[in-house]
Amino acid sequence: MPIYEYHCKGCGHDFEYLVLGGSEPDQCPACKSNEVCRFMSSCGFVSKGGGGETVSKSAGASSCTGCSATSCAGCGH
């Protein structure tokens, strides 16, 4: 069951939604507008070296180099 990120065209609110059985949100949880669209999430990864040390990190195009969050939806980056 994937969690997708959505954007409300009515109020600009970004939010996450757990998709169960293909159902998508029909309205924004902040303003109740029905003009919501799913957007592409950044993919992050951590590469480990042979000794278990972190070799490189990526959070897509994020400028949050020290961020440990699993999603940028909360901070807006």
Please tell me about this protein's structure:
The chain has strands at 3-8, 14-18, 36-39, 44-48, 54-59. The chain is an all-beta fold. It has one domain (3-59): Single Sheet (Rubrerythrin, domain 2). Strands 2-1-3 form a 3-stranded antiparallel sheet, with no helix packed on it. The chain is elongated.
Give structural attributes.
77 residues, 5 strands, two-stranded antiparallel sheet, 3-stranded antiparallel beta sheet, Rubrerythrin, domain 2, mainly beta
SSE arrangement:
Elements: E1 3-8, E2 14-18, E3 36-39, E4 44-48, E5 54-59
Antiparallel strand pairs: 1-2, 1-3, 4-5
How many distinct beta strands?
A: 5
CATH level 3 topology = Rubrerythrin, domain 2
**Individual helix count:** 0
Identify low-pLDDT runs. Answer: 59-63
The best one-word shape is: elongated
> Would you identify the CATH architecture?
Single Sheet
Strand numbers in spatial order across the main sheet: 2-1-3
Class from secondary-structure proportions? mainly beta
Radius of gyration: 16 Å
Main beta sheet: strand number and arrangement?
Answer: 3 strands, antiparallel
- Chain-averaged pLDDT: 75
Multimerization status: single chain
Helix content: under 10%
Strand content: 25-35%
How many structural domains can be distinguished in the coordinates? 1
How far is the first residue's CA from the last residue's CA?
24 Å
